[in-house]
């Protein structure tokens, strides 16, 4: 609130009259700085004290056009005419005072450091609302620009939304919706993440909404989830191989001839394991013989091709493909001796060609990720679909069976590789049943049994619980409701929030010029 002046001499000066009005508020920031100085250290405390009334004004401005449409329309008309008169577009000057009041209002707030400091202390919600409007407006206009300009616009928009006073209302509501997701995830047995994904798909619209609803409404074959996942895994493999081939170009161009010293040392270690003091381990002899034969074969070939880093890389591949890759994981002894030779060949290349280490680290990272995807989610390319589908849909349940979100992280890798709507389809498939899933089905049956028992006992009020229990336990009904809520949020994002901001700017006009000295 502006500071009221009671000193008669100052009132005469302010009003230009010998008959001053008692208590005339001051709006000039320079005068206010003398009457009621505010330092930057005072701002946080005053802003906190004034926050409730400031937020009240913020909300009041939003609803002003609805509650007082005539006053608002009159104010807008007078201000509009004032600007037209000031611009010489229409004759007269009886309305210019209204335009001047609006100009002065914003000049007092943002025309000087003193004014901004005081506005921030006395009307924090209004100031943050104005800043949010500027930042998000800039994002709308500039986010499509290339390079740093577009990125800066997006960052500014995110900052604007973060400080928007409307979050005081919307953030708690978002928290309540998330709690509802978790609760309905239990009653349906589909998991809270599936319900949240349905709402997010509705909010996003387009391909996300289509992917989710096609599975939720059974309009698409459920096998396409596995097909999409395996296609993305194949793309990951192609990308890894292309990167490997590109990075290996330098290694292939290296003409240096490598030594077999570390490889021979590995062969000696293998012999010591396989032949313990002259007693051979019969089960390991075939593996040992294959490895030694490969090394001897390489030693007998043309050194110009087979002793180079590229030639040793080929030997490493053959060791893996012909021996190590064929040994079952549970046969630890056999894998140990084959792995020892494999590492010796790789280590020899790395010593001579440092770039090779980076190339292989990148390739092995992708290879490890692909093996993990096959092992935990999709199986081999020709494996049955049903187990893969069961594992993929399990990502909607964050528990020990999904390694507490690890499978969901893996699915995100597949989405990045070429299956962007995979999570939406999985969520839709999780919500395509009218009946509850898993243990939730039994829990829903118990609730219905109790409701029917109460009804049989004459408690007619229990009748209302039956449809509510059925609806809350149905993945399909809950999924449709969550998706519809997301669609409503999308329209709120596109129309509602801009409309609220426009309503606030319109609603504050009567307050500015009808009582221009208030709330400065």
Q: Could you characterize the architecture of this molecule?
A:
The protein is mainly α and 520 residues long. Among the domains are: 1-36, no CATH class; 38-168 and 493-520, no CATH class; 255-352. The chain is 74% helix and 2% strand. It is built from 25 helices and four strands. The strands form two sheets. The chain has a two-stranded antiparallel sheet. It has a two-stranded antiparallel sheet with strand order 3-4. A hairpin with a 2-residue loop joins strand 3 and strand 4 (279-280). Helix 3 (43-67) crosses helix 7 (124-142), helix 10 (192-204) crosses helix 25 (475-514) and helix 18 packs antiparallel against helix 19. It is elongated. 31% of the residues are buried. Residues 516-520 have low confidence and may be disordered.
Set down the secondary structure blueprint.
Elements (H helix, E strand, L loop, with lengths): L3 E2 L2 H8 L8 E2 L3 H7 L7 H25 L1 H18 L9 H15 L2 H10 L1 H19 L4 H17 L3 H22 L3 H13 L1 H11 L7 H24 L1 H4 L8 H14 E2 L2 E2 L4 H15 L3 H4 L2 H14 L9 H21 L1 H25 L6 H9 L12 H12 L4 H9 L8 H18 L8 H9 L1 H40 L6
Antiparallel strand pairs: 1-2, 3-4
Average pLDDT, all residues? 80
Helix content: over 70%
* Secondary-structure element pattern, one letter each: EHEHHHHHHHHHHHHHEEHHHHHHHHHHH
Q: What kind of oligomer do you see? A: single chain
Strand content: under 5%
Strand segment tally: 4
The number of helical elements comes to 25
Strand order of the largest sheet: 1-2
Distance linking N and C termini: 6 Å
| Low-pLDDT segments | 516-520
Largest sheet: 2 strands, antiparallel
- Overall outline: elongated
Overall radius of gyration? 36 Å
Structural class: mainly alpha
């Amino acid at each position: 609130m502006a500071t009221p002046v009671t000193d008669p001499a100052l009132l005469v000066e302010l009003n230009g009259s010998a008959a001053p009005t008692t208590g005339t508020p001051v709006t000039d920031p320079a005068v206010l700085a003398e009457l009621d100085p505010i330092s930057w250290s005072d701002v946080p405390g005053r802003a906190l004290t004034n926050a409730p009334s400031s937020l009240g004004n913020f909300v009041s401005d939003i609803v002003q056009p609805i509650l007082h449409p005539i006053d608002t329309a009159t104010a807008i008309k007078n201000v509009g005419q004032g600007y037209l008169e000031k611009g010489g577009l229409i004759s007269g000057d009886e309305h210019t005072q209204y335009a001047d009041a609006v100009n002065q209002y914003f000049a007092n707030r943002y025309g000087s450091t003193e004014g901004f400091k005081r506005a921030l202390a006395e009307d924090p919600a209004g100031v943050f609302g104005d800043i949010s409007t500027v930042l998000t407006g800039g994002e709308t206009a500039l986010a499509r620009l290339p390079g740093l300009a577009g990125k800066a616009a997006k960052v500014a928009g995110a900052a604007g939304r973060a400080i928007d006073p409307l979050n005081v209302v919307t953030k708690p509501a978002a928290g309540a919706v998330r709690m509802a997701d978790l609760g309905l995830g239990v009653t349906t047995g589909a998991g809270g993440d599936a319900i949240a994904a349905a709402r997010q798909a509705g909010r996003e619209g387009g391909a996300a909404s289509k992917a989710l609803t096609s599975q939720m409404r059974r309009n698409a074959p459920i096998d396409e989830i596995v097909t999409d996942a395996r296609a993305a895994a194949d793309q990951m493999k192609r990308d890894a191989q292309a990167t490997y081939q590109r990075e290996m170009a330098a290694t292939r161009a290296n003409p240096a001839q490598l030594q077999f010293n570390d490889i021979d040392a590995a062969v000696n270690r293998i012999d010591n394991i396989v032949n313990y003091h002259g007693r051979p381990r019969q089960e390991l002899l075939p593996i040992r013989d294959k490895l030694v034969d490969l090394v001897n074969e390489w030693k007998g070939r043309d050194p110009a091709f087979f002793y180079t880093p590229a030639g040793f890389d080929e030997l490493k591949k053959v060791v893996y493909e012909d021996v190590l890759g064929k040994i079952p994981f549970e046969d630890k002894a056999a894998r140990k001796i084959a792995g020892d030779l494999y590492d010796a060949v790789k280590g020899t290349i790395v010593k001579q060609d440092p770039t090779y280490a980076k190339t292989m680290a990148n390739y092995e990272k992708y290879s490890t990720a692909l093996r993990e995807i096959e092992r935990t989610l999709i199986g081999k390319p020709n494996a049955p679909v049903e187990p893969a589908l069961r594992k993929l849909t399990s990502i909607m349940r964050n528990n020990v069976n999904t390694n507490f979100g690890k499978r969901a992280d893996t699915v995100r890798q597949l989405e990045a590789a070429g299956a962007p709507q995979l999570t939406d389809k999985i969520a839709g498939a999780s919500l395509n049943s009218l009946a509850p899933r898993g243990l939730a089905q039994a829990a829903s049956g118990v609730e219905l049994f109790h409701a029917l028992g109460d009804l049989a006992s004459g408690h007619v009020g229990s009748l209302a619980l039956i449809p509510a229990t059925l609806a809350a336990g149905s993945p399909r009904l809950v999924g449709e409701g969550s998706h519809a809520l997301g669609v409503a949020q999308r329209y709120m994002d596109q129309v509602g929030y801009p409309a609220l901001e426009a309503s606030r700017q319109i609603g504050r006009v009567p307050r500015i010029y009808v009582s221009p000295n208030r709330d400065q």
